[in-house]
Amino acid sequence: MSAQPHELAFPKGESFSPDGVGYPIPRETESAARFREIAAAAEAHRRRGGQVVVVQGLGFVGSAVAAAVASVSDAAGRPLHYVIGVDLATPASYWKVGKVNHGEAPFRSPDTKLPAMFRRAVHERANLRATTCEDAYALADVIIVDVHLDIENRVVDHVDEIRVDLGAFEAAIHTVGRNMRADALVLVETTVPMGACERVVLPILREERMRREIAEPVLLANAYERVMPGPGYVDSILSYRRTFAGVDEASAERARAFLSTFIDVEGHPLWELRDTASSELGKLLENSYRALNIAFIHEWTRLAEEIGINLFDVVDSIRVRKGTHDNMRYPGFGVGGYCLTKDSLLAQWSAVNLFGAETVLEMTLAGLKTNYDMPLHTLELTEDLAGGDLAGKTIAICGVSYLADVADTRNSPTETLVDALLEKGAQVRVHDPHVVTWVERPETVVLQSLEETLAGADGVVLAVPHAAYLSLRGEDLAEMAGDAFVVDAQNVLTDEKARLLHDAGRRVIGVGKGHWRSEGLHLDR
Amino acid sequence: MSAQPHELAFPKGESFSPDGVGYPIPRETESAARFREIAAAAEAHRRRGGQVVVVQGLGFVGSAVAAAVASVSDAAGRPLHYVIGVDLATPASYWKVGKVNHGEAPFRSPDTKLPAMFRRAVHERANLRATTCEDAYALADVIIVDVHLDIENRVVDHVDEIRVDLGAFEAAIHTVGRNMRADALVLVETTVPMGACERVVLPILREERMRREIAEPVLLANAYERVMPGPGYVDSILSYRRTFAGVDEASAERARAFLSTFIDVEGHPLWELRDTASSELGKLLENSYRALNIAFIHEWTRLAEEIGINLFDVVDSIRVRKGTHDNMRYPGFGVGGYCLTKDSLLAQWSAVNLFGAETVLEMTLAGLKTNYDMPLHTLELTEDLAGGDLAGKTIAICGVSYLADVADTRNSPTETLVDALLEKGAQVRVHDPHVVTWVERPETVVLQSLEETLAGADGVVLAVPHAAYLSLRGEDLAEMAGDAFVVDAQNVLTDEKARLLHDAGRRVIGVGKGHWRSEGLHLDR
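^ Those are the sequences you sent over. The predicted structure of the assembly is below.
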């Protein structure tokens, strides 16, 4: 039986990036051949006194960190580090290797510095390459671990239900241990359960090194990332405070020295904690704090709507109290992304499973649940305006990403709303100017024309405050939306635009906009 | 039957201040005579073009606001306002009238500006007086309402259990309405349930004025106070952002004009909200936010202790994230004071009782409960070190006030701990360098000698981080405490002092100090 022509061309298959470009996955021999060039360049860099840095995992964080580390120079302007990104030769992952080697950022970002950094590192300075070859780890002075470590279920009713499969993470660490040099530093950037470095990573590295008869102590540190999507992507790596801790003094020293080579530590001093568990806890705590503060405002949102108050105004009036209240959150549609939706669960899981602790983070977990369910409040408002019955209604949702003006759709609250609307028997259309393919939900077409999305819809949900929506004129929205009602889930509409829609006969409701509510739309009391 | 000599001397009795000074309560005729002098001075001030301001209620806020308003001058350096403070001729209240008329601040404060302000207003500028005569309201251009409005129960299991008796507040507003000039502005500074101005105060004033055939619309505004105990007491009135709202435009305008006479609005612009309910909600929301953020860290405190982490260090490392995380709270002993312990309940009560709303502020109320119970965690630690049985043990508690270096003992968490210790059969001694009389618990003697407090105790709880405790040398503490174990509930001890105590054979444990825990005291990993 003869193979299909396609299979002949790409015997290992093709890996597609979210923007639709296909990258043929190379045969192992081919990879190995390409890697020889990388290895030669890395060795040459090293002979010139530079360091070789291998980044394990080219995801959202790892790829950006790789390019950032590649961007720093010595006093003479020469690259300080030769950086090799490693990811898997699988359809789900290989495209990131392909993108990097083309000098492109794997992820779209509103930060224009990001693509420039990849282009320069790959095409001009030639000190950034990606590979699927595990041999890369053997070249490294520093191995930065940025592999995926997720929980399996973001919604739980009980602590026992939280499931974390460390399998893939452990496998990645085994790979490092099998290949690493004796004196390489392993720097874990991945957000991990507290205790992971000491109780998971360290034993694995020791085991693998023992097998290889390496007697030196492992150099291992945690330095969790605070990478932020949005226009400050690169700065959140190079010009941002970083916390770290080593498993011993030598590890901490090496970590401090390495981090200082690419972070602007003059302006943003490093913060060393006494042990890696403290550092690991820090990451989970800071994200849990943010998540809880979002959850907190949600119950006041419902109250404000019920008693007719514009909560945005009130929050603004409180945020003037700098240092104590200026991070109060606004009413909103929901919480998405990779971190805020899971880190509290990761903390609880590790407390129980790595430490045998009994403390239950009740308030923290309740907050996470509130955030997860938050889009269902927008559903309620939508149902209200649909006269209590969504069956057969066409609802147009504006915004799929989880944050304004980014393309990231991970755990987007729009997904929760879409599911709930479908369950109610509604027809759903979605639009997002930044999202071409909804990676987590490829069966849902993301329309690119707003006009087409809104035409003939019964209701419109403004779910994400993308600049493209904020800048819409009220008249244009009224025209495009026809007779549809409008639910403003994220403070997209000004009072003036809402009034214009109302005066044009549209019904309007807004999350946190209590002052719009009483009997239809009353902007004035 | 002849009256007692004492009764003859003070026919209406005597009113004692917390610092033990007695003020005989004057007869009505006597009050009236004194008031005639005040009235004459006020009228004279007014004829010179100045305003007369009456402050209703000389409590913690009202007395300080009265002195602050009296402190401002016109361009020529003359007092801008003549201020009259009004309080009741009762044993519980009259001492405040007495203190003010002696040119003294009724409340002790670490802010040295405060006593100076009273002295100057009463003795030098002669534009601040206090009285019990209701006629004062008839003199006022502006009436500032600073009367007490409390909930009756700070611990509830269900929303229906929250009890607020508006009786005294309503009576105070009736008094204002019976006496006020037609064109006077009523400015509510008291923290009130949202809706209070429109649904409680306004109807009462209208009713009283109708009876007096006053047809003009009421001038009424809410401008909630943000007065803070501690060294910034005066600045928190004169140099701090203030939110306000009027029941109509004329009211808002008058409120803005008046607030601008004594607040540094150049540096701290006023913030006007669209209605008084928004302003009232703002106060309750901002305090609820603070309370919840304190509650949040408590469950992480328990976790950190259980898994051996120094949470203070971790919080410090996170607080460097300015604008998003820099208000994260530290592990602690509990939450006291007048506001943070009740304002969430007030919000929930008014939602249900003034608006008929159904929203339950579940997370907010759970946080309040956590804060209320927080001292019981310190109890657990104390019980641990006492070998599981507190019966017959003598426990010395250092700190009675609810905040470091203030004398305010309202809802102090120490009270919760004392009650719980007594219930367990322990003997309790308390010490506080700032508290002479524990007003809410006069039967408990507050010792003034630390040595005497600690001598022979079985255990010591460091409950409040007063400077006097922070500056204690470890050696001195070890000597004074004898063999007693030490529970550090508020980060009073450094690691070095804890180590010193440990090395001297004392057992030491600390809230949030997970690193001290494993097997006795292990400061190092």
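Residues 1-7 of chain A have pLDDT under 50 and may be disordered. Chain A has two domains: 35-274, 295-516.

Shout if you want it in another format.
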